[in-house]
Amino acid sequence: MIQTSETAQRYARALFELAQDKGDLATIHKDFRAFAALIKTSADLRKLLDSPAFSRDVKVSALAEIAKKAGYSPLFGKFLGTMATNGRANDILGAEFAFDQFYAKQRGVQRAIVRTAKEMTGAEKSRIESLLARVVGGDVELTSEVDPSLIGGIQLRLGSKLVDASVAKKLERMNTVMKGA
Q1: Which Gene Ontology molecular function entries are recorded, alphabetically?
Q2: Class of domain 6-105 as given by CATH
Q3: How far apart are CA 11 and CA 94, in angstroms?
Q4: Architecture of 108-180 per CATH?
Q5: What are 20-49's pLDDT values in tens digits?
Q6: Chain mean position to CA 118
Q7: Which residues make up the CATH 3.40.30 domain(s) of the chain?
Q8: How confident is the model over 114-123, as a mean pLDDT?
Q9: Which residues contact 17 (CB under 8 A, 6 or more apart)?
Q10: Residue 148, exposed/middle/buried by CB under 10 A (0-12, 13-18, 19+)?
Q11: Comma-separated ranges of CATH 1.10.520.20 domains in the chain
Q12: Angle (nearest 5°) at CA 109 between 104 and 112
């Protein structure tokens, strides 16, 4: 899970409020998600954002070019430029995470993360999502992650609650019990 700095949260909150005032939340959310996906898949972009070897001016112009070519909204392009100008380019992913949380809360959607040892099918994801929606009494957006170290079973996080029904956790509990015996 991404950790967000207080600064990243402040930038995200400012963008969220501005986008909300302009009625542009969905567009900004879409742009932010697309840009975050780009960061996650491009080692060069991560290096640009994280490295102090690149000047702020280089970062600003590179981000402006990316925003232009990707067709991001002008507001989102300005946001990226502002973060780079203020030396916060390395906080963009944290700001995206915070923005995403604000957006979900505004829409009344709860987020859940499910981790399994192997990729889940669409039907499995849908079933878990519908079960969670019934439990929480509202909409749930499910994100799935693959973690082979779980061996089998499932880990489910909804808000601050974690249900760990993985084989790895069961083996860990058995090991603890056996050591105590």
Answers
A1: proton-transporting ATP synthase activity, rotational mechanism
A2: mainly alpha
A3: 10
A4: 3-Layer(aba) Sandwich (3.40)
A5: 999 999 999 999 999 999 999 999 999 999
A6: 20
A7: 108-180
A8: 95
A9: none
A10: exposed
A11: 6-105
A12: 95
